[in-house]
Design a protein that fits this description.
This protein has 473 residues and is mainly beta. It has 5 helices and 31 strands. The two termini are 18 Å apart.
């Protein structure tokens, strides 16, 4: 694959950590505005080079960065505009709710859990006492931009209790151009290694891609706080279908038109070894009412055509491995399989990734990654070498000298569905002595423009260190 060079053109700087980048045409307007959500709860929009505040819900966001040395994966993490937003003013938010801080589902630091293949107890943990042993509550809400230009909340769609502070997803709300439904992409609940195997359990909301029919079901039903589908009232169950399971953590879903169908792209953030990008066209979603009924009857559902990314038995291309220093030579690692039985059970059900990149890579033209932060198709012609390709971002290149730099790369979908390689995209921007974590990636409505969110720190309280760029030739 060809080496591609691009430039980064700053659009807005000195903002807080940018979590979602997307465009929409405001009611009464004729051109797209770029919307930027920040982790702390602001939604900004840029039109004709002028930055304005669309909405600020920061008082409704959980207190961030307190328990984990300043790092946090909660906050305002999802924004989606109704396909008819220009006419009806409806939009949707996904965020972590103020005043819901709990102690967490396991003692210890938030990523401290490690399975021990020699200790079956660590391989079969259950999440118990969920009403008290949880980290926080995430909510999905529907809002409307009123005719006077003021946004107002209309209803709450879901309230989900989460076991740990990490893996809530980011850029987690997107509308499917195929079904017209709102798609919620949620991570496995967090910690590390999915201690309770929530991602493979059909009843758990965590670790799933869920379609929400907000068009058919318009009632205002104040939903209870839940962790499982079978705890939801029937009217809310009827709104939901599940597209996929086996998600670890996920920076959204994107759609690329290909003749009369859509290719779906999903990036799954890795554990210790590998980051993965998956693609699929055909899938068989399962209505939540059917999942609940099967669970109630203790029946096996036919999961043919149901997408399974394989976690926690598989980390993308590999069975999930653990890193341990070799006792005879601490500079080397051994990598035992963490969950052998889980890997076997999902081996034929899982979807293989389109492309993978690794935390350690001996190949000179590649890079060591940290965490996948965005996946977007590019359908523009201004950067001809990228037209039709899938662009992705990694948080921070591993093993390079400080200051930190994120990575931009691309791959292409193969019509024969085989795995593909990827290539790094070179950028010329001089960040100077500041760190530049690549935290988000977005496009405009027809995917002809790409936007990159960069932050100077991974600590929430380091305010105003964010910049949004357009990626240009």
């Amino acid at each position: 694959m060809r080496k591609v060079k691009v430039r980064l053109r700053p659009i807005v700087s000195k903002i807080n950590m940018p979590t979602v980048l997307k465009t929409a045409v405001l009611p009464g307007d004729s051109i797209e505005s770029l919307f930027v959500t920040t982790q702390v709860g602001e939604i900004l929009y840029i039109r004709d080079g002028v930055i304005r505040t669309f909405l600020d819900i920061s008082p409704r966001i959980i207190k961030l960065g307190v328990s984990s040395g300043g790092y946090d994966e909660r906050g305002l993490i999802g924004l989606a505009f109704h396909p008819n937003f220009h006419y009806n003013g409806l939009f949707y938010l996904h965020f972590s709710v103020a005043g819901t801080q709990g102690p967490g589902a396991l003692p210890g630091a938030f990523e401290s859990f490690k399975p021990n293949p020699c200790d079956p107890k660590t391989l079969n943990l259950k999440w118990t006492n969920r009403e008290t042993q949880y980290d926080h509550i995430d909510t999905v809400e529907e809002w409307i931009l009123q005719s006077n230009g003021q946004p107002q909340k209309r209803r709450t769609i879901l309230n989900v209790r989460r076991p740990f502070l990490n893996h809530n997803g980011v850029s987690s709300l997107n509308f499917s151009p195929e079904t017209g439904k709102l798609v919620l992409t949620t991570g496995d609940g967090g910690s590390g290694y999915d201690p309770f195997n929530l991602s493979q359990d059909d009843m758990e909301i965590a670790g799933k891609i869920i379609e929400i029919d907000v068009v058919t079901y318009t009632f205002n039903y104040n939903p209870p706080v839940v962790t499982r589908f079978d705890e939801l009232p029937a009217p809310i169950q009827e709104m939901l279908t599940v597209i996929a399971k086996g998600v670890r953590n996920i920076p959204g879903i994107s759609f690329q038109r290909f003749y009369n169908q859509y290719i779906k792209y999903v990036g799954i953030v890795g554990q210790d070894l590998v980051e993965s990008i998956f693609s699929f066209v055909h899938y068989k979603p399962i209505p939540v009412t059917q999942l609940v009924q099967a669970s109630f009857m203790n029946a096996e559902l036919d999961q043919e055509g149901f997408i399974n990314f394989g976690w926690r038995g598989w980390e993308g291309a590999f069975p999930t491995l653990m890193m341990k220093s070799c006792s005879a030579n601490p500079t080397l690692d051994e990598k035992p399989i963490a969950y052998y039985d889980d890997a076997v059970k999902t081996s034929v059900r899982r979807l293989p990734p389109l492309t993978s990149y690794f935390h350690k890579d001996p190949r000179p033209d590649k890079f060591g990654g940290t965490a996948l932060t965005g996946v977007q198709p590019y359908m523009g012609n201004e950067i001809p070498d990228l037209t039709g390709s899938i662009v992705f971002t990694d948080l921070a290149r591993k093993g390079s000298h400080p200051p930190v730099r994120g990575v931009l790369a691309y791959t292409r979908v193969r019509t024969d569905c085989k795995l593909n390689d990827f290539s790094v995209i070179e950028t010329d921007y001089d960040f100077g002595s500041r760190s530049a974590y690549y935290v988000s990636l977005g496009t405009n409505l027809d995917q002809t423009r790409l936007y990159l969110g960069v932050n100077g720190s991974m600590k929430v309280a380091d305010f105003h260190q964010g910049t949004v760029f357009e990626i240009v030739p």
